[in-house]
Amino acid sequence: MGDRIPAHMELAVNYSPQAADLLRSGQINFDLFKTPNWHNMVEEAMNYHPVYIHFDLNVGLGKIAHQNWGEVEDFLNKTGTEMVNLHVVAPENLNACNEMDIEAFLDSVIDEVRLVCKRFGEDHVIAENVPLPISGKPYLRPVAMPRFFQRLVSETGCGMLLDLAHASITALTLQTEPIAFFSEFPIRRLREIHVTGLGIHQGVIHDHMELRDHDWCLFESAIHQIRAGNWRKPEIIAFEYGGTGEPFVWRSESRVLLEQVPRLYSLIHNGNNNNSSG
User: Fold this and answer.
1) What is the rounded distance in angstroms from the CA atom of residue 130 to the CA atom of residue 132?
2) Above pLDDT 90, what percent of the chain?
3) Euclidean distance between CA atoms 195 and 207, whole angstroms
4) Stretch 223-239: mean pLDDT, rounded?
């Protein structure tokens, strides 16, 4: 990855009808809408604001070679999106207790990322950390840990997409301090950050929730690390609250966007916290 540091960070917000209405009425301001690679949503969001795509591309399942890259390139060209993001996942049948199996699997993930880097250039590929939940899914442990991402960016040249909520869930599972845990990822290769709150819904911890005091503390710590030069300044910080469809019906409140987007915008663009509430 090149060493060029962006002049400024941009705040992106998940596309939702609520966010579009608040933007159109001038009640909130941000730089980009973040959308999945869904044609209808991209078209709708582009009516209101510049858009960048967060692709539903996974590495770790052996399917990346069969991806429709022509469609990916069409989305990149249409929106001006500069990064091809990859979710690093693992198959449920991975034996997380067998070191030989794990090493062979991690080698295959690196090969898949190399394939994408070869097509788009390593400066245009970023890999996102997966959450390791407190209960279940032990097969995800090998791809949830910072050490693997250190190896991944070193061997492929790709950049890091650090999802703070995902890393916070993993830190809870490991019973470790989250702020120090964040810095174990390859933050010198940071290109994008995702931020949301964590909360309990139907007895299970979820991200994509509104930010509360603890979440704000973690995000403000990340901003401090960036301002201090300890982390690379990312091109984009995305607030992943809100959306469309059933999964987001109960977490796309205008009230939350109206309260939290301006505070995020001020922190990102001015370095100020203009709202002491969480």
Assistant:
1) 7
2) 84
3) 9
4) 97
Structure tokens at 155: 């061997």
- CB burial readout 169-184, b (16+ within 10 A) else e: bbbbbeeeebbebbee
Check pLDDT > 70 for residue 215.
Answer: yes
Which tokens belong to 208? 């994509």
Three-state SS sequence of the chain? CCCCCCCCCEEEEECCHHHHHHHHCCCCCCCEEEEECCHHHHHHHHCCCCEEEECCCEECCCCHHHCCHHHHHHHHHHHCCCCEEEEECCCCCCCCCCHHHHHHHHHHHHHHHHHHHHHHCHHHEEEECCCCCCCCCHHHHHHHCHHHHHHHHHHHCCEEEEEHHHHHHHHHHHCCCHHHHHCCCCHHHEEEEEECEEEEECCEEEEEECCCHHHHHHHHHHHHHHHCCCCCCCCEEEECCCCCCHHHCCCCCHHHHHHHHHHHHHHHHCCCCCCCCC
Given a contact cutoff of 8 angstroms between Cβ atoms, the answer to whether 13 and 238 are in contact is yes
CA–CA gap between residue 260 and residue 178 (Å, rounded): 22
Of the options 3.30.360.10, 3.40.1350.10, 3.20.20.150, 3.40.50.300, the CATH number for the domain spanning 10-269: 3.20.20.150
User: Domain map of the chain by residue range?
Assistant: 10-269
